[in-house]
Design brief:
- This protein is an alpha+beta fold and 72 residues long.
- The protein is built from two helices and four strands; from the N terminus they run E-E-E-E-H-H.
- Strands 1, 2, 3 and 4 form a four-stranded antiparallel sheet that branches.
- A hairpin with a 2-residue loop joins strand 2 and strand 3.
- The protein is globular.
């Protein structure tokens, strides 16, 4: 667990995005999570590269925050 930067935590089979010890949420306050380890890695890479700008078309968080768990 990384307490200084972005990290993903597996909690009961769901991968949640965190920044340090704070859970990253969508603009409307929903959890950002996936059940796919591969998608969790992409979310983490996107957050590390682009931050949590959910309006940036470059960030996977923008599409994920609007559509939920893409692989479900």
């Amino acid at each position: 667990m990384n307490s200084n930067g972005y990290n993903v935590r597996n909690i009961a089979g769901k991968y949640y995005l965190y920044f340090g010890d704070e859970q990253v949420m969508t603009p409307d306050g929903s959890d950002i999570f996936t059940t796919s380890e591969e998608l969790a890695k992409l979310l983490l890479m996107g957050a590390e590269e682009y931050g949590v700008d959910t309006e940036s078309v470059l960030s996977i968080l923008s599409s994920h925050s609007l559509s939920g768990d893409l692989l479900q």
